[in-house]
Amino acid sequence: MSFTLARPAAGFALLAVLATGCSAAVAGYHAAAKPAASSSSSSAVKTATINGATVLTNARGLTLYSFAPDTMTTSKCNGTCAQLWPPVHGRVTAGPGVTGQLGTITRADGAIQATYNGHPLYSYAADTAPGQAKGNGLNASGGVWHEVTASGAAAPASTSGGGGYGY
Q: Which of 7, 118, 152, 157 sits in a 20 to 30 Å window from 100, CA-based?
């Protein structure tokens, strides 16, 4: 008789363990299913003075560039080009000093790319620290690259630019 009483008690104990485990698993699932809230600093563009020009940078302070062959709706930098000149993906927010129009385009691969005053935005793989603008004025990947100034105009090529890397 005690066997039959122990069985329901064990069943309730097992049910309690499963319920606790399931609710934890469900809570973990919901937490994992929700997209992580992105901090505004990780998706913000801001300005910095580099080589005498006020230019746009990403949240890490790396210079942002535009590519002369691009249009307001199309990026012409894909494949290997996009490895050297990574597109700024997704929507961005305006940080300090940014007064131009932010927007997006859809790239050939379906990804969303940020724009500034109609120019698709990129960083440059050779810029590894804030304050560098090694890509400014480079004729690479089929066109000329320019720092994006706060005004949205192409910055003049600096003499300390990239040294003529012709990728």
A: 157
**Phi, psi torsion values for 84, nearest 5 degrees:** -80, -30
Tokens of 35: 């997209």
Q: In what order do the strands lie in the sheet with 139-140?
A: 65-67, 143-147, 139-140
4-24 pLDDT per residue, tens: 444 444 444 433 433 434 333
Instruction: Please report the beta strands in the chain, taking only residues with DSSP state E, as ranges in sequence order.
Output: 44-50, 53-57, 65-67, 93-94, 102-106, 112-116, 119-120, 139-140, 143-147
Print burial letters for 46-60: b (CB count within 10 Å at least 16), e (below 16): bbbebbebebbbbbe
**Encoding tokens for residue 29?**
């699932």
Quick count: other Cβ atoms within 10 Å of Cβ 63?
A: 26
Pairing of strands 44-50, 53-57: antiparallel
Give me the pLDDT at residue 156, please: 62
Alpha helices in 34-133 (DSSP H): 80-84
